[in-house]
């Protein structure tokens, strides 16, 4: 079997094999992926993955309640003292988005319930033959992006949202010959 060709480092290979396109309905993990994908905007995923442990430490393992309570001073400390991407807007978006996730959890029971409602609870399992066939965005990511922006989320453009949906397993974009594709596991 031929694996996806995009993982170019050991760190990326581990992410590809253990997390990418794997269904995960844990709100804390989902919030982490949403935050990390937002941090990626304009950068490579590898850059973000290399900083993941620093992000986890800085944002208290992406505990939604703790992130929602971060003060401006704490956010500035994260920006200056941790090995995270220094973009002020991206750092502040973690708190903003955590507050909005809490609202979604109250309304839908969980962030996972809200997101999975867009696909009626069933993952989209694509059958790509080459990684070059994988789109950067789709109608689903465009719709979810618009809806998240309407709610007030930051750093949730259609391309970011598409990568986010892959990261939590709503979309499986492993190439069909990859042993990590849903049909081959």
UniProtKB/TrEMBL annotation:
Top-rank taxon: Bacteria
Classification of source organism: Bacteria, Bacillati, Bacillota, Bacilli, Bacillales
Organism of origin: Mammaliicoccus fleurettii
SUPFAM superfamilies: DNA-glycosylase
Protein name stated in the entry: DNA-3-methyladenine glycosylase I
């Amino acid at each position: 079997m031929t694996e996806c060709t995009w993982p170019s480092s050991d760190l990326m290979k581990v992410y590809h094999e253990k997390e990418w396109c794997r269904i995960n309905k844990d709100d804390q993990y989902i919030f982490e992926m949403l935050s990390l994908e937002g941090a990626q905007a304009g950068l490579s995923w590898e850059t973000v993955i290399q900083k993941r442990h620093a992000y986890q430490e800085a944002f208290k393992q992406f505990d939604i309640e703790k992130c929602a309570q971060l003060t401006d001073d704490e956010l500035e400390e994260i920006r200056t003292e941790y090995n995270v991407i220094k973009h002020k807007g991206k750092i502040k978006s973690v708190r903003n988005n955590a507050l909005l996730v809490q609202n979604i959890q109250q309304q839908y029971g969980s962030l996972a319930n809200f997101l999975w409602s867009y696909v009626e609870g069933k993952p989209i399992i694509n059958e790509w033959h080459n990684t070059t066939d994988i789109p950067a965005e789709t109608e689903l990511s465009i719709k979810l992006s618009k809806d998240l922006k309407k709610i007030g989320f930051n750093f949730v453009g259609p391309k970011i949202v598409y990568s986010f949906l892959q990261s939590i397993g709503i979309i499986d974009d492993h190439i069909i010959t990859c042993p990590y594709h849903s049909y081959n596991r």
